Amino acid sequence: MSAPAGLPPRPAGAVAAYPGGPGGSREAAAPQGAAPRCQNGPVQSQMQFPSGYGSHPPNYSAPSGHYSQVPSKAVSSHLDNQYRASYQSPYYSAPAQNVMTPPVGTNVLNTRESQQFYNSSTPPHTVGLTEGPAQGAIPSGSYVYTSAQQSYSAFGDHYNTSVSSSVASQGFPLNSDHYAMPVVSSAMYPNVSYPPAATSSMYGQAFTSQSLPAAGQFKETNTFSSQSTSVPHSLQQHVPVGYNSTLSTISSAQSFQDNLSKSLTGSVAKVNNQVNRGGIDSSQPVHSVSQNVQLTKPGFGAPASSALISSVRTPAPGLSSQPRSSPSITQSPDSALQEALDSSSTTSSASPVLNNYDALEGGGYPETRSVTNSPVPTPPAPQTSKTSKPFGYGYPALQPAYQNTAPPTPVQATNPSHHPGFQHYPQQYPGVNQLSSSLGGLSLQHSQQPEGLRPVNLTQDRNILPVSSVPAPVPNLNSDLRKLNCSPDSFRCTLTNIPQTQALLNKAKLPLGLLLHPFRDLTQLPVITSSTIVRCRSCRTYINPFVSFIDQRRWKCNLCYRVNDVPEEFMYNPLTRSYGEPHKRPEVQNSTVEFIASSDYMLRPPQPAVYLFVLDVSHNAVDAGYLTIVCNSLLENLDKLPGDSRTRIGFITFDSTVQFYNLQEGLSQPQMLIVSDIDDIFLPTPDGLLVNLHESKELIKDLLNALPNMFTNTRETHSALGSALQAAFKLMSPTGGRISVFQTQLPSLGAGLLHSREDPNQRSSTKVVQHLGPATDFYKKLALDCSGQQTAVDLFLLSSQYSDLASLACMSKYSAGCIYYYPSFHHSHNPAQAEKLQKDLKRYLTRKIGFEAVMRIRCTKGLSIHTFHGNFFVRSTDLLSLANVNPDAGFAVQMSIEESLTDTSLACFQTALLYTSSKGERRIRVHTLCLPVVNSLADVYAGADVQAVVCLLANMAVDRSVSSSLPDARDALVNAVVDSLSAYMSTASNLQQSMLIAPNSLKLFPLYVLALLKQKAFRTGTSTRLDDRVYAMCQIKSQPLVHLMKMIHPNLYRIDKLIDESTIHVNDRVVPQPPLQKLSAEKLTREGAFLMDCGSNFYIWIGKNCDNNFIKDVLGYPNYASIPQRMTQLPEIDALSSERTRSFISWLRDNRPLSPVLQVIKDENPAKTDFFQHLIEDRTEAAFSYYEFLLHIQQQICK
Amino acid sequence: MGGEGMGWRGCEPVLLHKIIAFDELKTDYKNPIDQCNTLNPLVLPEYLIHAFFCVMFLCAAEWLTLGLNMPLLAYHIWRYMSRPVMSGPGLYDPTTIMNADILAYCQKEGWCKLAFYLLSFFYYLYGMIYVLVSS
């Protein structure tokens, strides 16, 4: 699903729509007091069940009666299907919502409800929402419930009497008769148990037959399957291999939808008939399930749905003799599933899932760190070998330094075994007097005052920077929950202790929010292939490690506290191959998982990867010479573009006209088509402009080779960017995809033309900075249109003068694109920028990409989302529409507490990112974060995550400067520090008011805010070009936390004595670990050499009296004077110091996606100012030094 | 004054529609783009109707009534001047409307204005009847 609301129906028709997922509502939740507390689920001990939630619907007893009679039958999930059907109808009134679910029978039943709901006028756009809110479906639910029960009992009878026979009573057997062919093919059941099997697969539920296949009957099964293969085969002949599952499902669903819509007017019986008529279609859902698993061999054996298989296995776990129609193990669906799930638990580098996933997705960011050294994000608990080192899991964001056995600092030496308190020691200094306090911090876990609350006198304590990078605080949860919790790299909250009420939050004066990096490149990710994705029926939360299992059959949602049934299929654990342990499933053992979504999660067939490049070829652009770099990068990476056999690519160039390129296969050379009517742009030819990458590869290569030289003599200085974008939108709108725009100047012609708004004299004004907002809404409108058509626009701005990025950036901001800016780009005059463009492009072209994505953030009842930050379009209160999602995109969310959280001790947040992978698979990546709820102000401060707080504040400040003014935003930043510190000091009564005291958790807060104030985005008084400022703001909005922190507060290391530093070992390389230095010129000694890591740039500053050995060994020059002005690479010299330096730099580089550009700086270098402006603790003519800033804050507090 | 009282009702349906629309947004029923597209064309007519009545009051020398309406007129002018950058008429920007603050503000504004219009409607009705009876 995905298509943002409001788009016209897709070619495929609104094929199905909302996950036919569970979600109906039972009239449940009649308050019945506390439910039995579950012991097996990961509930924290203090967990209280709010009354009214933990109850079970009285009706529930009816189905459970059947449990006893038919022990292993999935009554519950059967009911699920009913609810599922009913749920979606009121909210997402897509025609035939459920069509794509394997359970055909459900549809039949469903139509009755749908019929009703179609009469009610639900707006059609909401159809697209995959993950809809679910409160309030109750009225329909009650109705459905009864019907479900009826059908169930009929079904149960049928089962007990077993086999075939009439039972036309409810219409079910009719189904099974008619679906006999496909179902048998999918089942490994002998004839005896055939009807149940048929039904079960129709319901897509796990179904355990009591009569196990006797060995002699296997043959029969095989014959059945061979018979039935004909059906899928014939259907799939036209479908490309590897993609068939989804396509065939859709096609079938489409026709099936017709059936259904026709039948809506008729009775149920009629529906049945119609369904039966479409016999082939109806066989598809079953088939489609198997396709999910078995990607390579479309027609083979028509295997059962994974659910079916797993249930077959359950009664006799050692059922290895299970008939397989294919000799190859990997082709067998159940083993594939098995493998996929098994491997999800393996933490070794040889994890098949890892490979599998990489192979599927392709083009991922190559993680060079070896897996054994890299932190494991969320390894499953059941592995006993791992339990010996539990804290490695709970703390996956650690730098490898902390994971490594070689202790780099004396402090670490005291604590080699990952003691729970270890998160504190990096903040300590190895000084003798502080060592004791750091050791004290280790045991603070149990003491009264947590380490985060230890008062730090900011004005006296100058050395507050930690030795190495600042770690994320660990939520104060019990160890079980802690190790299950989401990696702070992907998901962080500004307050790791959630305040109970909004009043308490207001008192703390800290912002509450989430920092997300949802599509991060992961080295290890459990991928779950399962026909049913277990979700809460009322709030649609995905099952996660923090739900509680009330008993074997029921789980309680941790967000809305609704009690849900555990589907039968979920009872089987493919990891342990055991039955009846739902709490050991990978979904429940990992807080970051990825589901392969079924066709319920699609609005249309998954789109192919489509890339369109829109290139500026005006005189200015040709002069800058970027075309060569772009074309060469594309040529190099053409094969690495993420995609499958359907990948399409196209090119548009523009100056004062728009040029299209016909690359249709069969042409002898690329054909340029020029459209000069830029006021009414049209596509010169209906096809051939976006071509299949593989079919037209030669033509594309020809074009890329020719492009850089085609416009060398152009005299055209105008730029009709707006028209080119309109043309690009027209070209992309049928499919969606990615538009990459390369622009080098202010658009000066046609739609969307802009005028220069920057007054160079105002660049260093301390007062109002104007024009931070867009000048026109043309680009915003275009972005919204693009977003509606699942197209993202990425902007590469390579300009030497003002280009009004504030207006241009809108095209990417609202279409979920990304923005790159290369000020004063020139291929020969500015080689650093050229190199950066080259590196960025390499990453950009080859990184993973998700198409037609939506992201929904759910949180515990009582919390609500206030504002989103990032590049996206907000489609509803908790849903972001992301035309594309890339691994480098970060998001921030401001939260507010609407109802007090008094009845819970844990607050949970879940992000679900639904996207189409470049291979055409629908996938859902789910992250869940669990945090404790506290009711005292001290605890709130103890759990503050200063980096997250600063990043969220930065996002808010950007909004403020655009909507209000820059000085306003700056004041707000300072006030944030003043307010929170004074609130803290007033709580701690025993502190002297004369000193500036901060809790240990917030001791870096003033420093970071000062850094923000000196950041390009917010600084005043220093000359800052408007575009630079706007770009910095765009980056603050869209960068994930790790990169943003480097931007705000760079890391400074001394590198001329790396040999003496402690080291860690990564990938057989020795990596020195120099301590972080303060960002102050007082640290820069003339004898030293320093490396500053600003995220996108590395600066190496060489002191005048630097040791000649260092200069010779590392830089390759005899002395200081001979170092050239422009040096961007370290030579490979066979010396220990050179080796260490290079390994250190490459280690720093490995940790980030964008490879930073290195610049060596001598004293007279023009880049010196860039370097020195990052020394934020120093005083500048326009801004405070750190100490002055502290005094300023203290003054404000005392006021 | 009498005729105006009846014509006054023009604003109310517009406003009611707005309030419902914001509620729909909040409860997730509708896409913000569509919602803004339906709401934006209604903003100017509402303001113009109000301005028209103010002019009529001015002509009729209804100083008290005019005085009551001036603050709202000023608010309307301010509100329209400070609208986000957009090419078409209207106030609401689909990209910012989902912000909790803005949505809450718009809803509150809608309710307040509805109350004002309703009260003034009855006041005008009273005025009309009073004039009819006394003449």
Automatic annotation (TrEMBL), chain B:
It is a multi-pass membrane protein. One of its GO terms (biological process) is vesicle-mediated transport. GO terms for cellular component: membrane. InterPro entries: Cornichon, Cornichon_conserved. It is found in: Membrane. The chain crosses the membrane at residues 47-73, 114-133. Signal peptide: none annotated. It holds the Pfam family Cornichon. Keywords: Membrane, Transmembrane, Transmembrane helix. Its main location: membrane. Belongs to the cornichon family. This is Cornichon family AMPA receptor auxiliary protein 1. The gene is CNIH1.
